[in-house]
Amino acid sequence: xxxxxxxxxxxxxxxxxxxxxxxxxxxEGEPEIQIKNHQIYLIPHKRYVADxxxxxxxxxxxxxxxxxxxxxxxxxxxxxxxxxxxxxGFTPDRFLKQLGQTKGIPYTTDDDFTGSxxxxxxxxxxxxxxxxxxxxxxESFYLCNVVPQLxxxxxxxxxxxxADCLKWAKAFxxxxxxxxxxxxxxxxxxxxxxxx
Length: 196
Prior knowledge:
It is a single chain. Helix 2 crosses helix 6. It contains six helices and seven strands; from the N terminus they run E-H-E-E-E-H-H-E-H-H-E-H-E. By secondary structure, it is an alpha+beta fold. The longest helix is centred in the last third of the chain and has 22 residues. The protein has a five-stranded mixed sheet with strand order 1-2-3-4-7. The chain has a two-stranded antiparallel sheet with strand order 5-6.
């Protein structure tokens, strides 16, 4: 099948803004997604990059790098410390807002999750991003980095996998992580609806 057109938000490569070329090459290539007739935007942020599908209102994949330094810093920055508490909520990133305003392209808002059966599941985890700095932590709360997850999954096996990535980064120095969404039917997606 032919791929959907890809539009790039701010750069000509798929790397995050703070990755150098040597760091980025550890991924050994860009993930390939075969979805037809969707608008897909590559959105780089400081410590992660998202491949965002505006048809599905969801990231197809998000890539980030877990490092030993960020994993060690995460342990020093508990949520109980007011300087490192979670941001107030989830927000659309500035690029998606701009697309909405200039081209009428829809994007997910925090309200879309309110009252639904889904939690806001990070792809590049908050705990990991705050190990770098506050800007990276804030960017982890952009909705281009979030997928709907049932809370049992998000707080269970997904949280355990996030913790494992931090352990592996401490043990091996660096772990290259690409997370992705699995859709039941990309041609007939179920949209988030308040209360459902």
